[in-house]
Design brief:
The protein has 54 helices and 29 strands. By secondary structure, it is an alpha/beta fold. It has a seven-stranded mixed sheet with strand order 20-21-22-19-23-24-25, with helices on both faces. The chain is elongated. The N and C termini lie far apart (142 Å).
């Protein structure tokens, strides 16, 4: 050991020795001395070199590394032992360098044998450099240069290397001989020696045993089994030597090679695994380079440790394998992607089974490649296969076409063919199963699959398809059933229109009205068909009611089939075309001297007719009635393709068509041909304006003999002419040599000219267009949405008129007609509306006449007409129009016959006009159909306007002027109310002259009657002898306008809720006098009005008094005329309907339902049915009214059917001819004039919130009715009154049946609140109040709050949460919503819901389950707006939300778990049962409180005011 005077760590020099020399002595390779030194000094794998040569050139031997010595200086390495020994170890390798020329050892100055030289302990070599590797020799400047310290070393120990491997041309015995010689020399130096068995990774067992024997024979000799290549026990070898150098330590421990190698392999495996994970984690793209990875991994322990032990080369090899694996994985994914896309591609390109069923795969590939969209799905590469080209890195997702040549491509193709086959079979079986279900007739709407499954299990199709397919087919079948049932249910609702259209537009249906509706509809099979879908049925009913209340074209149940929308579209298109085509039409119709005729026939018959016409003409000029016409003929066969295109009409421009026939076959062909030509012309009319084309049927003569078929042909021809509404020209009697006679041709030409006159009006001048703002008559045409006819059909009588023009701007559903009505031309405004849109017009606007259209194929259409007509004033003329295909429908279809007959009977009863329009007939679409109706409207116009002004003034007296849609007519001909209505011949009209079922159909006047009239431009008839009055004279001689009754301002009076008004009105009608009873008074009439008050202000007990006086305004000066005995019946002057003509002048206008038994019976039938069902319920109410001192109102029997009084025998009943609504208003005025004004009237008229009446608290409270924040505090988060009520109920009332459902006494409830107002410390138990009174007071507290406990802003979120199907998810969403409550509301809501949960747990005694409690409490807690139709559709959802809070109160508020079922066994809120998709959300019937009784709103009347 080198001795140092300072405290630096000691340094030990170790000499590594072993067999050395020429090849013949050591063999082809050394014993591993250099590898052992290399591994110890530089253990990193990258610094380890397995090749170290001893054959050097003279230059290399003389270099500074070898320095002409036979030893190498490997450098020094620090060492720190387990006991804390710190030192440095310098390593010397004793070898023998061989000259590469002589292959003998290089000669040095002191040449000694290796064994003696290797045992030397003192070495010296000036400026000798450290040895690193063989490549260093000659290139020392490229490697680290480190000199041997001081140029000399003293050896402290020896490592004797002995190769135990098989060796290379070397015997182990020879090596041992050399070792024995060397060892003997080393021993002499008395330095410690460690024997290193090298190359143990390739050891020979015998050699190792011999070495162990050798070592064991020596004293203090230690053997260490090493492997420099595997880096096993290398460090241990040198450490053992150092321990021997330290005399203070014991004998070092050694580890056998096998054990050390095992530990080493485990360490390397662990390092390799960690490195692989690191590489997988960091290298995702196979385009990554090793250099980039190294820069990212440098400094990471897993990477550094692996590189130290295994080296960069192994790391790079592993990286290369990983990159290759990534690339293969990428190619595999791309291949899978292509193979996944291939079935979809084949399904698009080869989707038809019949196309590919018999194709081989190569043939299918050829078909695919020839497809036009081949490039969209496939890409053809220049180089193949695709996975060895750059296509793997391409973003193009198209499939490489060469992939189809692989076995996978062919397999997928055959799978595709099999899939098509199986899908075909599956589809067939599903259709068979669908038909099987259709044969099971007992399947009802909403019936679960499980109930039907057992009936179809033996079906072959059922067994073939899967359960999923079965359910899918059944679901589709169920959807069809449900849709049909819903459509039928909706149609049924329309058929019961009388149930709905008598309601106020802005009202909300009461509980009684809903009960009535359900009672009536329950008798219908279509109502019961949705029994299993009761919530859906209720939703449809509420939606229908909502539409009835708020009818608009946007909310129309027919959607885009709404009449209003269709009319707007048709008028927008057609009226513009009419305006464009009209000017040319008038110009071309001025003089007709040329007639273009199309001749239609079969088998040359048309050519024969042309020849006959030419024979009777001179140079194509024909003389008729003293005028010469130029004829241009176009003979055509009925089967010619020329006729089936409308281009020939625009090219040839025919004025008429002669259609000739001589057999049944040719007649049938003629009929078909005319139908097709009319269809083509109708199509062309939509594109441009064109007049209708006259058709003339001509029967050809039988020249050979008198044929027996002539009568049949004549009869059939006449029938066809009637059906097609064209002219039939018969063959004259007698025998003629020709097929056509001159008489037939002239008759046909006259018919064509007559048609041209009707179309072009050559006799009348061009109509003058009046000012658009001037309208003489306002007509409203109403039609039913969804009726099975086109809107064009009902508009055709107007649009095909030449005097039709568009309405005023902004009125998209209005058109104008200029017609001769009466004795002058009038401007008629026709507004075409749906019935639901016309309801508002009927009530508020001036209408001179109604054209009510209905389909004779649809009962709902007739029902809607009845409901609408029943509320029309009977002074307004009505034209009823039935729509069907043809007249034959009346005889062939009993349903059509019944509806047409009913329509005609109604028209007869109310003296209205009736006609029919046929979709297959052009003749009935002329404007003349409505000419008689327009005449009647003009006659009754003064009466109509007088009635309208009277009703308007009445409305202004009560509710103020209504907003007008139509402007008031500027041409009022009223006599300023000298009488109610002047006597007219209106009611003397005979029944309508036209019957749709008789043979004497007559839509137009007879020829004899027509001679008395002249015809205007469009065929309007007016008397020839009359002298028309000029427009200036007629339109400006207007009486002074009638001043309506002024609407006086009423301060501090607000409009009541419609429900409240309706209830009050019902109550007052119940106490109103009958015509033979006494009168009561209301306080609606202001005594300051400029109207005469009734003379009698005292109540009378016997009939009408002769002194009853009613005052009406006469003129603008407000002068009054008194009319006495306005209800006295006169004995004489009755007409055929029983009307008294003298009293007719003084009678008030009524509704048409009072003039028709059909309308009246339909309207009242439901009420009678409901009254008969609820007699028992009304008995108690009547008794209660008697106790209150009020007379019970008698039943409202049908005056037409009840013979109780002899004067109620028919429609001459005054109760019918008078207007009940006007009577109600007058009664209320009389009551109002004398009733003392109540001091709290303003307060009672305050508009309440929907559903809740005005508060009936008569004292001023500083607690109740205040905001919730005002009655709580941080110390008292729950209102004290709520705590007291809940505590009292839970202590004494949890066994009370009907708790919170049975209403308590109102007086007791008020007393509880009054007492609490005076004494906050009151004790309900001491007061001994009823449980139901305390419960009612509790609910009243919440009802009086300014805002509901559940804020309005959260209602939509609660409704959406209630629709969630998954129960757990629904509860979680509700829990999140309830956290959004304001803190004050949350605490009170938590308190009251917890209380209701405890109540529900006693449902066996209280019968109040969570479901029942939620029904009672949700309106109080949420206070919805029931006037909003959306609220009606969410009632059940709101109730379900409150029920969920009650049932799961522990979960929502106390951190508990979700309970399995609702408390108290009530209706649960669990997951709804599975249903077909697209169902309406579950709804229950709307729970509304019973209507308020008048005695609950107004104070009791004075005894003298009670009947």
């Amino acid at each position: 050991m080198a001795k140092n005077k300072d405290a630096r760590p000691p340094t030990f020099a170790v000499s590594v020795v072993g067999l050395s020399g020429p090849e013949k002595e050591k063999g082809n390779c050394g014993v591993g001395k250099s590898c052992l030194c290399n591994r110890y000094l530089r253990p990193d794998a990258d610094n380890y070199y397995s090749e170290h040569t001893s054959v050097l050139s003279t230059i290399d031997f003389g270099g500074r590394v070898v320095n002409n010595d036979h030893f190498l200086y490997w450098g020094e390495v620090p060492y720190r032992g387990d006991e804390g020994l710190d030192c440095k170890i310098q390593v010397i390798e004793q070898t023998e360098f061989i000259d590469d020329q002589t292959f003998q050892p290089h000669r040095i100055t002191s040449m000694q044998p290796y064994s003696k030289r290797a045992a030397a302990t003192k070495l010296q070599s000036a400026e000798k450099l450290m040895y690193i590797c063989t490549d260093q020799l000659g290139l020392e400047q490229d490697f680290e240069q480190k000199q041997m310290p001081d140029g000399k070393l003293n050896i402290d120990g020896f490592v004797l290397c002995i190769d135990v491997s098989k060796g290379c041309n070397r015997r182990f015995d020879d090596q041992m001989k050399f070792v024995n010689s060397l060892y003997s020399q080393i021993v002499k130096s008395k330095k410690p020696v460690v024997v290193a068995a090298t190359k143990c990774d390739e050891f020979v067992e015998q050699h190792l045993r011999d070495l162990q024997t050798f070592v064991a024979s020596k004293k203090n000799l230690l053997l260490v089994e090493t492997s420099a290549r595997a880096n096993v026990n290398v460090e241990l070898c040198f450490n053992a030597l150092i321990q021997q150098l330290d005399k203070t330590r014991g004998k070092p421990k050694t580890v056998p090679y096998l054990d050390a190698s095992k530990v080493q392999r485990q360490l390397v495996a662990s390092l390799t695994e960690r490195f692989e994970k690191l590489m997988v984690q960091m290298v995702k793209d196979y385009h990554t380079t090793w250099k980039g990875v190294v820069s990212k991994m440098k400094g990471i322990p897993d990477y550094e440790d692996f590189i130290t032990w295994e080296g960069s080369r192994k790391g790079r090899n592993m990286f290369t394998k990983h990159i290759a694996q990534l690339k293969q994985e990428h190619i595999r994914r791309r291949r899978e992607e292509y193979l996944t896309t291939l079935p979809k591609t084949l399904n698009n390109l080869l989707s038809r089974l019949e196309e590919v069923e018999h194709l081989t795969w190569p043939e299918a590939q050829s078909v695919i490649r020839n497809r036009s969209d081949f490039q969209c799905w496939f890409v053809v590469l220049e180089q193949t296969p695709w996975d060895e080209t750059d296509h793997v890195d391409n973003s193009d997702r198209r499939i490489p076409f060469d992939l189809l040549n692989t076995p996978d491509g062919e397999r997928i193709y055959h799978s595709h063919v099999q899939h098509l086959l199986s899908e075909k079979r599956r589809g067939e079986m599903k259709e068979r199963f669908k038909k099987t279900l259709e044969r099971v007739h007992f399947i009802s709407a909403g019936q679960p699959w499980e109930e039907v499954m057992c009936f179809v299990m033996e079906d072959e199709a059922y067994k073939y398809i899967t359960e999923s397919d079965r359910r899918d087919v059944y679901c589709r079948h169920q959807q069809e059933i449900v849709e049909r049932a819903k459509e039928d249910f909706q149609e049924m609702l329309f058929e019961h229109a009388e149930l709905f259209y008598d309601l106020d537009l802005n009202a909300t249906p009461s509980f009684v009205k809903m009960s009535e509706i359900h009672s009536v509809l329950n008798e219908e099979p279509r109502y019961r068909a949705l029994q299993k879908l009761a919530p859906d049925r209720e939703s449809l009913l509420l939606k229908h009611i909502g539409f009835v209340y708020h009818p608009t074209k946007e909310t129309c149940l027919s959607g885009q089939n709404c009449v209003d929308l269709k009319v707007e579209q048709v008028l927008a298109n057609r009226l513009v075309q009419l305006d464009h085509g009209r000017s040319n039409l008038y110009y071309n119709s001025a003089n007709i001297d040329k007639i273009n005729l199309c001749l239609l026939g079969r088998e040359g018959l048309s050519q024969e007719l042309a020849n006959e016409i030419r024979a009777q003409s001179t140079d194509d000029e024909y003389t008729l009635d003293g005028k010469i016409y130029e004829l241009e003929l176009l003979p055509a066969d009925v089967n010619s393709t020329l006729l089936f295109s409308h281009t020939w009409v625009s090219t040839f421009k025919p004025h008429g068509c002669f259609c000739v026939f001589n057999s049944i076959e040719s007649l049938n062909c003629i009929g078909d041909c005319i139908g097709r030509i009319r269809a083509e012309i109708a199509q062309s009319r939509r594109e441009r304006f064109a007049p209708p084309l006259p058709f003339i049927l001509i029967l050809a003569n039988q020249r050979d003999s008198v044929c027996k078929n002539v009568p049949i042909l004549r009869h059939q021809g006449q029938q066809l002419a009637n059906k097609l509404q064209c002219t039939f020209v018969d063959m004259p009697s007698g025998a003629f040599p020709r097929k056509f006679t001159e008489f037939q041709i002239k008759q046909s030409l006259r018919a064509v000219l007559e048609g041209l006159k009707q179309n072009f009006d050559v006799l009348a001048p061009l109509p003058s267009i009046k000012d658009m703002s001037e309208v003489d008559l306002r007509i409203v045409m109403c039609a039913m949405c969804w009726d099975p006819f086109s809107v064009d059909l009902i508009l055709s009588p107007f649009l095909e008129s030449h005097c039709c023009s568009a309405g005023q701007p902004g009125q998209s559903n209005t058109l104008m007609l200029d017609k001769i009505v009466g004795d002058s031309r009038k401007r008629i405004q026709v507004t075409i509306l749906s019935y639901h849109s016309a309801i508002g017009v009927r009530k508020d606007e001036l209408v001179h006449g109604y054209i009510l259209v209905y389909s004779a194929k649809r009962k709902a259409s007739m029902a809607t007409l009845r409901a609408f007509l029943a509320e029309v004033q009977d002074v307004i003329p009505v034209q009823m129009v039935a729509i069907t295909d043809s007249q034959a429908d009346f005889f062939e279809n009993d349903a059509i016959k019944e509806l047409m007959t009913e329509g005609e009977h109604i028209a007869t009863e109310i003296a209205a006009k009736f006609t029919a329009l046929y979709s297959l007939s052009q003749y009935h679409r002329q404007t003349e159909v409505f000419t008689p109706f327009f005449n009647e409207v003009l006659e009754k116009k003064p009466n109509i306007e007088s009635s309208f002004l009277f009703d308007s003034s009445s409305r202004e007296c009560t509710t103020g002027a209504s907003e007008e849609v139509f402007q008031t007519s500027p041409h009022s001909h009223s006599p300023a109310y000298n009488t109610y209505y002047p006597e007219s011949d209106d009611d003397n009209e005979a029944p309508p002259p036209y019957s749709p079922i008789g043979d004497d159909v007559q839509l137009l006047p007879t020829p004899s009657e027509r001679a008395k009239y002249r015809i205007d431009l469009e065929g309007n008839e007016y008397p020839v002898h009359s002298t028309p009055v000029g427009d200036q004279e007629r339109n400006h001689k207007v009486p002074p306008p009638v001043r309506p009754k002024p609407a006086l301002p009423r301060p501090n009076v607000k409009k009541l809720d419609p429900n409240l008004l309706k209830t009050i009105e019902a109550g007052m009608r119940s106490n109103r006098r009958t015509p033979r009873g006494t009168m009561t008074h209301t306080n609606d009439m202001d005594p300051s009005d400029n109207y005469a008050d009734p003379v009698d202000t005292l109540l009378r007990t016997a009939g009408f008094n002769n002194d009853d006086i009613y005052a009406e305004p006469e003129d603008a000066h407000g002068r009054l005329i008194k009319i006495r005995n306005s209800f006295v019946l006169h004995g004489g002057g009755e007409d055929e309907n029983g009307y008294d003509r003298k009293s007719q002048a003084a009678r008030r206008p009524s509704k048409y339902r009072h003039r028709s038994k059909i309308l009246f019976s339909k309207t009242k039938a439901y009420q009678r049915r409901l009254q008969s069902d609820s007699d028992g319920e009304e008995t108690g109410m009547a008794t209660q009214k008697k106790k209150k001192g009020r007379a019970h109102r008698g039943s409202e029997e049908d005056p037409l059917l009840s013979p109780a009084d002899p004067w109620k025998g028919g429609i001459d009943n005054p109760a019918i001819t008078s207007d009940p609504e006007q009577e109600d208003k007058k009664m209320k005025k009389k009551k109002t004039s004398k009733t003392p004004k109540e001091p709290k009237k303003a307060k009672s008229s305050k508009s309440p919130k929907p559903l809740y009446p005005p508060t009936r608290r008569t004292w001023e409270s500083h607690y109740f009715g205040l905001p919730l924040q005002s009655v709580v505090s941080p110390e008292q988060p729950i209102p004290l009154f709520i705590e007291k009520c809940v505590d009292y109920i839970e202590r004494t009332g949890l066994s009370t049946e009907g708790l919170y459902r049975v209403s308590g006494n109102k007086t007791d409830q008020d007393n509880i609140q009054k007492h609490f107002d005076q004494d906050r410390m009151m004790d309900l138990e001491v007061m001994d109040v009823a449980i139901n009174a305390a419960a009612g007071a509790l609910k009243a507290f919440f009802a009086d709050l300014p805002d509901p406990l559940i804020p309005y802003c959260l209602h939509p979120e609660l409704v959406e949460a209630a629709k969630i199907v998954d129960y757990t998810e629904r509860l979680q969403v509700l829990k999140d919503i309830v956290k959004k409550f304001p803190s004050v509301n949350y605490q009170v809501f938590k308190y009251i819901i917890t209380h209701l949960n405890r109540v529900s747990q006693h449902s066996k005694s209280t019968l109040m389950t969570a479901d029942n409690l939620s029904i009672c409490f949700w309106p109080t807690l949420m206070r919805p707006d029931f006037e909003n139709k959306d609220t009606l559709s969410t009632t059940k959802l709101n109730q379900a939300v409150v029920e969920s809070f009650i049932v799961q109160s522990d979960y929502f508020f106390h951190g508990g778990d979700v309970v399995d079922g609702p408390a108290g066994g009530g209706g649960g809120t669990g997951t709804p049962p599975p249903r077909c998709h697209n169902m309406v959300e579950a709804l229950l019937p709307l729970q509304l409180p019973p209507p308020l009784q008048p005695q609950q709103i107004q104070h009791a009347m004075a005894p003298e005011h009670i009947l």
